[in-house]
Amino acid sequence: MAAATNTVFQPMGIVTGGFSGLGIILWETWRIPLWAANTILNVPLFFAACRYKKKKFFLNTLSGAVLLSVFLGVLPRFSFFPKDFYVNLILGSLLMGIGLGIILQEGNSTGGTDLLASLLKLLFPHMSIAVLLGILDGMIVFAGIFVFGVENACYALLCIYGITKITDVVVEGPSISKLIFIISEKEEEISEEILYRKKRGVTKILSQGGYTKKQIPMLMCIVSKKEVPVIKEIVKKYDTKAFVIISDARETIGEGFVDFSQ
Asked: What is the value of pTM for the model shown?
């Protein structure tokens, strides 16, 4: 995160929200170093978090904020690709997204606007943390317009989109499985082929039609994206009138997928 801020976003005047974005504005306006701005802005939040947050979360967030401030002060400011503006934006988004993803994957934080949003949740319980965080970061990006202009603010919005997508990939994993429900009178033949010919697990769930009141087993299986056409072909082979639901399974934990230990 510090590398993305020091080598891309600060030199290019890209305010992507958060205390790092606010620090870029303070540097451009009053030449306050990024590490100092991050530290000063976080101090009052940690006093509040010490009272309202659990000890483990507080200590992890404190260490994250301290390390971020240290690296913001230690890492040199340079441009990886001085002549290519867009490659720099992509690289900055990639670095920031990976950094955020690693932190959020463990349920931790580096302070900043996400900690502020969680504290504001106590004052505004009817609003979600995501909405509060969006408002705070939006205000910082909007403030950046008056310092760096509308064009840079538009680039910042593109970077925020990229950072969000990369963070999701790191937190949830690069592959999203597909959850398939199959309701068919030929459920025995379909499940046999999926189980023994395609070597995929199938779970039978007893379901009942709301109108007909007829009970029939519903098949549930989780497969990779590339296996979806194969499952559809199997269903079509035995029952062209089968009812099939296919949706994303954002995370799958268990035998054959990801162990809890990971």
From this structure: 0.73
Print the domain residue range for 57.
Answer: 2-172
Which two three-digit tokens encode residue 82?
């001085």
Q: Are residues 13 and 130 in the same domain?
A: yes
Q: For residue 19, which amino acid is it? A: F
Q: Which of 195, 197, 214, 198 is nearest to 206 (CA)?
A: 214
Q: Please tell me the total count of domains within the chain.
A: 2
Which SS3 state, helix, strand or coil, does residue 240 take? coil
User: Is the domain of 65 the same as that of 144?
Assistant: yes
And the tokens for 223? 């497969």
Helices and strands (H and E) in the chain: how many = 11, 4
Longest CA–CA span in the chain (Å) reads 73
21-47 burial, b at 16+ Cβ within 10 Å, e below that, comes to bbbbbbbeeeeeebbebbbebbeebbe
Least Cα distance to 138 among 118, 160, 123, 107 occurs for 160
Output the tens digit of pLDDT for each of the chain's 262 residues.
999 999 999 999 999 999 999 999 999 999 999 999 999 999 988 888 887 777 888 888 889 899 999 999 999 887 777 778 899 999 999 999 999 888 887 777 888 898 888 888 888 888 877 688 889 999 999 999 999 999 999 999 999 999 988 988 887 766 678 899 999 989 999 999 999 888 888 999 998 888 888 888 899 999 888 889 989 999 999 999 999 999 988 777 766 655 555 5
